[in-house]
């Protein structure tokens, strides 16, 4: 009986191939702006949980190692060029904020990377496609795959395009990864009420657009539009922080 079951068991390599082929990767490649060969893309999208469930197939951890290095160098080079008067200590903090797990996961959310990751049953059941750690690691693996196929400069171009918004707003005290906290701290300084967020979604289910707003008391302080709710709220909070620092009249309205 045992031998009969083993004969009928589908080999891991076949399961791997079928799982990969069942997904249309064209939208992902369009968002990346580069064509990635199947062998590299399949490996980059294979989480260890899937690999281990199917006979210890190869997984994306080695590509993740390469992608981490390429990401760091790409961002460091751009920051060096964009901030010629900043000391090493400042641009080091900037780089760390951009290539953090949060920053990587946010980019992964923007390109809907979670829809394409091959996960084991356990990770799938526990929301693995939305976990920042898995999204960040897979994002690095994708960069590693692009590097292995094309080399450094094309990979750098992909990275800088995906991180363009973050590079534009990064500061020495950190990226906008926690503008909601920054807003609350500013409101606490002003002894103002707690910020309240609201968000709406429009568009098709697989590619929605979120609009978030943040209000304090009766005053709307900011609005953000993004491909996921978390980023839209962060953008709204960023707008609010800037408004509170630059516009005394708004602070007076809140106090009133």
Automatic annotation (TrEMBL):
Where does it primarily localize?
cytoplasm
> Which GO molecular function, any one, fits this protein according to its record?
double-stranded RNA binding
- Give EC number(s), comma-separated: 3.1.26.3
What domain of life is recorded for the organism? Bacteria
Offer a single GO CC term for the protein.
cytoplasm
* Domain RNase III residue range list: 25-151
What are the required cofactors? Mg(2+)
Q: How does it assemble?
A: Homodimer.
Which HAMAP family does the entry mention? RNase_III
What is the similarity comment for this entry? Belongs to the ribonuclease III family.
Q: State the name under which the record lists this protein.
A: Ribonuclease 3
- The species this protein belongs to is Corynebacterium aquatimens
């Amino acid at each position: 009986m045992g031998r009969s079951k083993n004969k009928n068991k589908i080999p891991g390599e076949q399961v791997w191939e079928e799982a990969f082929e069942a997904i249309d990767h064209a939208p992902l490649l369009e968002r990346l702006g580069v064509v990635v060969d199947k062998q590299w893309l399949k490996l980059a999208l294979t989480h260890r949980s899937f690999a281990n469930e199917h006979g210890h197939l190869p997984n994306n951890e080695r590509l993740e190692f390469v992608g981490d290095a390429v990401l760091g160098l790409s961002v460091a080079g751009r920051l060096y060029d964009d901030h010629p008067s900043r000391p090493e200590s400042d641009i080091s903090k900037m780089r760390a904020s951009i290539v953090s797990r949060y920053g990587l996961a946010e980019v992964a959310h923007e390109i809907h990377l979670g829809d394409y990751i091959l996960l084991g049953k356990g990770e799938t059941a526990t929301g693995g496609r939305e976990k920042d750690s898995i999204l960040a690691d897979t994002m690095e693996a994708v960069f590693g795959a692009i590097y292995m196929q094309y080399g450094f400069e094309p990979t750098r171009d992909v990275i800088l395009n995906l991180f363009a918004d973050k590079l534009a707003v990064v500061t020495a005290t950190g990226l906008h990864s926690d503008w909601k906290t920054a807003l609350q701290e500013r409101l606490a300084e002003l002894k103002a009420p707690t910020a309240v967020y609201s968000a709406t979604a429009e568009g098709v289910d697989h590619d929605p657009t979120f609009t978030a707003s943040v209000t304090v008391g009766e005053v709307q302080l900011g609005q953000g539009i993004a491909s996921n709710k978390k980023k839209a709220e962060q953008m709204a909070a960023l707008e609010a922080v800037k408004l509170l620092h630059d516009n005394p009249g708004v602070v007076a309205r809140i106090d009133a």
